[in-house]
């Protein structure tokens, strides 16, 4: 029996990279059925809302969604669709691996790390934003809870233990943000004691960024709060060749959404030159989540083999291929 997932094709280059990714999943024999739903500008045009109720219902019903990049219109009255999805489904864990791939423009050859980012609270959520009447003073409320800190840190340690990782680095700014970041660090220290088989170290966020650039091989799993995780995970993507190779998983207790973390790139939409690897790697994360471990292993291996062979690579990877040509080259190797 096929397992159904919700599919959000997205905006800009989204439909192109989604078509490419589903082509590879079908070639893989992943035994999936797709329920297509709308979000973003496509949904606004068709349904007069960015995130229709039918889309939310489909994600809830299937418990798993694969999502291409979405565009949130600029201007008042529109909030981030990604933030809405995370809050609606309480997708508290954002998991972003950064792995070195062959024939990229990366400066490094030995990076294999994962950033686990708290996804539902902290400064990034933007709660309590006010601007004084004279426009001179802006304020923002930042809320960090014991519950939120505990579940993300526990997720990081449990994931590390499950997949055989040896070290978790807790990234914070407790030296300055003594209450919010301080609470996160306090909880992390308490939980680390429950995992004596996993090395735990602590690092202030600014030093983390410097160390990632200087000696990224020292990191294995990074766990941190929402805003720091957003910044650090993009830095890690830069270490391995850019956002075109950066997948992301948003995990909750009842639902999970897997996505390419880059934008919708409207400047190249419709040209057939978009790199689909980030979404394919997100699909591999999805297969892991579904316990289709052989399929996820074969998908990643096929991506690596295709990049090693420089077979139909897209222009951002130094090739002259196109999106579907690249996908077909990967599909031939799965």
Automatic annotation (TrEMBL):
Lineage: Bacteria, Pseudomonadati, Pseudomonadota, Gammaproteobacteria, Lysobacterales
Alphabetical list of SUPFAM superfamilies matching this protein: Isocitrate/Isopropylmalate dehydrogenase-like
Enzyme Commission (EC) number: 1.1.1.41
Isopropylmalate dehydrogenase-like domain sequence ranges: 4-330
Domain of life: Bacteria
Protein name as catalogued: Isocitrate dehydrogenase
Molecular function GO terms recorded: isocitrate dehydrogenase (NAD+) activity; magnesium ion binding; NAD binding
Similarity-based family: Belongs to the isocitrate and isopropylmalate dehydrogenases family.
Keywords for the protein's UniProt record, in alphabetical order: Oxidoreductase
GO biological process, one term: isocitrate metabolic process
Broadest EC class assigned to this enzyme: oxidoreductase
Keyword check for Metal-binding: no
